[in-house]
Amino acid sequence: MTTASNDMQPGEIHTRAEIKLVFGGSPQGGICPADEERNVMLFSDEAAGALYGYKDGWLAEEDELGRVFEYTGAGRVGHQTFGGRFGKGNSAVLRHAEQSRTLRLFVAVGDDPNSDAKLHRYVGPFKLDEDQPYVVRVARDENNAERRVIVFRLREAGPVEIVEVDKIKPAPKTTAKTVPADTTTAKVVEPERNKNKKGYRSASPETEAERREAVLSDAFEAYLKTKGHEVCRFDIRVKGKTTRLLTDLYDMTDHVLYELKGTNRREAVRMALGQLLDYGRYVKTNDHPEVPRRVVLLPALPDEDMQDLLDEHGIGVAYQAGDSFLGVPPSFN
Questions:
Q1: How far apart (Å, rounded) are the C-alpha atoms in residues 269 and 217?
Q2: Which tens digit of pLDDT belongs to each residue from 277-331?
Q3: How far apart are CA 277 and CA 295, in angstroms?
Q4: Residue range(s) defining the domain that contains residue 57
Q5: Are 92 and 219 contained in the same domain?
């Protein structure tokens, strides 16, 4: 353990009390805002995460912006939120840029041999990914009940320490499991934003097309349920990868995978086509081991050229028509 100083460096190991002297915060809690120091302290503990079926850490895959560290939000019982007792910490993370705060990440490394205090290694300063600040996953709470958890996507905001133990291990094999249809960021209520502040981007639907997609998803899910169909999504982990894929709606009753877009423009249809060709390889169940029927769901019918493109690849197209939907594949029943 090193001696805390005003210029704590990544890799240094300290107790919570020592960390508080430098960066502020509190002696307890996983997410600790520190108003006086303009920081939000993030404490990660692999042993605690394992109890609830998740692991924080670096993704193996990098994108054009570099590395991502996944950090699971606060809340041990029920769905994680941005409101309530535990949601306040999650809100502080989400709004850190708006409030001119830096995210400071620490990882638990054991106990101080000279006291009962836990030791934490400083990883470094972070900020949220502006395009996708968080994703939503399914995990168990302390009562072993299934719930939604918020997983923040952290980007480096200065020098950081990267060690092997902090990396998420790639999936040993490809798996695809069903998760509730509401496993999506559109179902998580975010705090009000101060639109006059810069450097903050909400993960809720920002563009009109994204908002329409969320509305379309709710309407279509309700439509299928009125027909007596079970609806869910698939959470896909690909062998050798740490990033995960989340499909749009899947009709369990008729084995149909839908990819939704909030616009019928060419770019959206092409993206939906690629996603269905990709995801559809993994969407199988005990009752339906074959590749599912695949359908692009849009707010309106696309032009004839895009319809021909989808047809060439065996992809159907459905669209909203008032309170109903046209182009939905016929039921097996």
A1: 16
A2: 999 999 999 999 999 999 999 999 999 999 999 999 999 999 999 999 999 999 8
A3: 10
A4: 13-167
A5: no
Domain assignment of residue 195, yes or no: no
Whether residues 217 and 159 fall in one domain: no
Number of domains in the chain: 2
> 225 and 151 in one domain?
no
Rounded to whole angstroms, the Cα distance separating 333 from 331 reads 5
The three state secondary structure string of the chain is CCCCCCCCCCCCEEEHHHHHHHHCCCCCCCEEEEHHHCEEEEEECHHHHHHCCCCCEECCCCECCECCEEEECCCCCCCCCCCHHHHHHHHHHHCCCCCCCEEEEEEEEEECCCCCCEEEEEEEEEEECCCCCEEEEEEECCCCCEEEEEEEEEEECCCCCCCHHHECCCECCCEEEEEECCCCHHHCCCCCCCCCCCCCCCCCCCCHHHHHHHHHHHHHHHHHHHCCCCEEEEEEECECCCCEEECCCEECCCCEEEEECCCCCHHHHHHHHHHHHHHCCCCCCCCCCCCCEEEEEECCCCCHHHHHHHHHCCCEEEEEECCEEECCCCCCC
Under the banding of pLDDT at 50, 70 and 90, the label for residue 192 is low
Residue 201 lies in a domain: no
What pLDDT, in 10s, does the model give residues 195-214?
Answer: 444 444 444 434 577 789 99
Tokens of 22: 């430098």
Q: Who's near 117: CB < 8 A, 6+ residues apart?
A: 15, 16, 17, 111
Q: What is the pLDDT of residue 29?
A: 87
Residues 311 and 218 in one domain: yes
For residues 25-52, average pLDDT: 88
d(CA 20, CA 16): 6
Q: In percent, how much of the chain has pLDDT > 70?
A: 93
Is the model's pLDDT at 40 over the cut of 80?
Answer: yes
